[in-house]
């Protein structure tokens, strides 16, 4: 049976049907009643998520929807009502209008829900945590069709990242040893060291927003898949993969400021290459085997 499965997988991939086995596997998991959330997390870690199931998986794993499918209709109505109530409250308070960008609307909704919406908005959009929220919300606006889902998925990812902020703040120190290990001739690593690039990169911010606003949206979503599965260490490998992938241009740049500018916005064509390499490195060191994510409350 194992040989037969391996042959099918090889056949599918050879003729361009990569992902057929993954699609079958996730469909089997989604037929379980109730859903096994831990199995779904592990699926996120071990396999690419088929696009048509991504948003639904996120919603279940992040606790927006219950593991019990019988409650889904009720929970969808509940989330929609909460969204509408928060939106209406901001309208009554004259804190939003028809021209307010959705990410800013969502931030105000989140803050009013948490009882943290300030009376004066001066400087509110530039506060570090709020900027992280806005970055995530902007990505969701490009990835998710339904505005209610945009809001709740943004909220849950943001809360997950804030909850694990202490972990995210120590992860940047792992980039340098990993880069040194993967740069076989140490030429790039020495160049980076000479210009003190790593200490100047906003790695903590990048990690806390999962590269939202740095990588293209379609690349960020694949990073978020692993984070949803419970692996924050993927963020380290994305940084390493970014530097390794852009090796040639970085070696040709002799000013740190120019390197920083170059790394600020990654071209869409490079985004997928970087994330593919990051996932390869992440798998190479065995991080796809176990979820470290806590259970999410509904």
Automatic annotation (TrEMBL):
<dbReference type="GO" id="GO:0005829">
    <property type="term" value="C:cytosol"/>
</dbReference>
<keyword id="KW-1133">Transmembrane helix</keyword>
<keyword id="KW-0458">Lysosome</keyword>
<dbReference type="Pfam" id="PF23436">
    <property type="entry name" value="RabGap-TBC_2"/>
</dbReference>
<keyword id="KW-0968">Cytoplasmic vesicle</keyword>
<feature type="transmembrane region" description="Helical">
    <location>
        <begin position="227"/>
        <end position="246"/>
    </location>
</feature>
<dbReference type="InterPro" id="IPR000195">
    <property type="entry name" value="Rab-GAP-TBC_dom"/>
</dbReference>
<dbReference type="GO" id="GO:0005096">
    <property type="term" value="F:GTPase activator activity"/>
</dbReference>
<comment type="function">
    <text>Non-catalytic component of the TSC-TBC complex, a multiprotein complex that acts as a negative regulator of the canonical mTORC1 complex, an evolutionarily conserved central nutrient sensor that stimulates anabolic reactions and macromolecule biosynthesis to promote cellular biomass generation and growth. The TSC-TBC complex acts as a GTPase-activating protein (GAP) for the small GTPase RHEB, a direct activator of the protein kinase activity of mTORC1.</text>
</comment>
<keyword id="KW-0963">Cytoplasm</keyword>
<dbReference type="GO" id="GO:0032007">
    <property type="term" value="P:negative regulation of TOR signaling"/>
</dbReference>
<protein>
    <recommendedName>
        <fullName>TBC1 domain family member 7</fullName>
    </recommendedName>
</protein>
<keyword id="KW-0812">Transmembrane</keyword>
<keyword id="KW-0472">Membrane</keyword>
<dbReference type="InterPro" id="IPR039842">
    <property type="entry name" value="TBC1D7"/>
</dbReference>
<dbReference type="GO" id="GO:0005765">
    <property type="term" value="C:lysosomal membrane"/>
</dbReference>
<dbReference type="InterPro" id="IPR043039">
    <property type="entry name" value="TBC1D7_dom2"/>
</dbReference>
<feature type="domain" description="Rab-GAP TBC">
    <location>
        <begin position="182"/>
        <end position="265"/>
    </location>
</feature>
<dbReference type="GO" id="GO:0031410">
    <property type="term" value="C:cytoplasmic vesicle"/>
</dbReference>
<keyword id="KW-0343">GTPase activation</keyword>
<dbReference type="InterPro" id="IPR035969">
    <property type="entry name" value="Rab-GAP_TBC_sf"/>
</dbReference>
């Amino acid at each position: 049976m194992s040989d037969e499965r391996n042959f099918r997988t090889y056949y599918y991939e050879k003729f361009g049907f990569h992902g057929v086995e993954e699609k079958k596997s996730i469909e089997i998991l989604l037929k379980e009643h109730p859903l096994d959330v831990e199995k779904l997390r592990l699926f996120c870690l071990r396999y690419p998520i088929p696009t048509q199931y991504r948003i639904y998986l996120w919603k279940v794993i992040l606790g927006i929807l219950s593991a019990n499918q019988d409650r889904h209709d009720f929970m969808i109505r509940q989330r929609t009502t909460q969204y509408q109530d928060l939106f209406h409250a901001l309208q009554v308070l004259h804190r939003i209008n028809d021209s307010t960008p959705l990410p800013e609307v969502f931030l105000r909704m989140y803050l009013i829900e948490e009882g943290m919406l300030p009376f004066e908005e001066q400087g509110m959009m530039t506060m570090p945590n709020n900027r992280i929220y806005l970055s995530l919300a902007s990505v969701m606006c490009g990835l998710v069709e339904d505005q209610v889902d945009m809001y709740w998925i943004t909220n849950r990812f943001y809360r997950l990242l804030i909850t694990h902020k202490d972990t995210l703040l120590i992860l940047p120190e792992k980039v340098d040893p990993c880069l040194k290990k993967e740069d076989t001739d140490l030429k790039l690593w020495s160049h980076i060291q000479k210009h003190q690039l790593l200490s100047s990169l906003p790695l903590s911010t990048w990690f806390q927003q999962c590269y939202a606003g740095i990588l293209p949206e379609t690349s960020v979503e694949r990073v978020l898949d692993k984070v949803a599965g419970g692996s924050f260490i993927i963020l380290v490998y994305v940084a390493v993969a970014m530097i390794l992938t852009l090796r040639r241009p970085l070696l040709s740049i002799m000013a740190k400021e120019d390197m920083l500018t170059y790394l600020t916005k990654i071209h869409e064509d490079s985004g997928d290459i970087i994330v593919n390499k990051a996932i390869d490195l992440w798998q190479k060191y065995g991080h796809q085997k176990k979820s470290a994510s806590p259970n999410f409350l509904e």
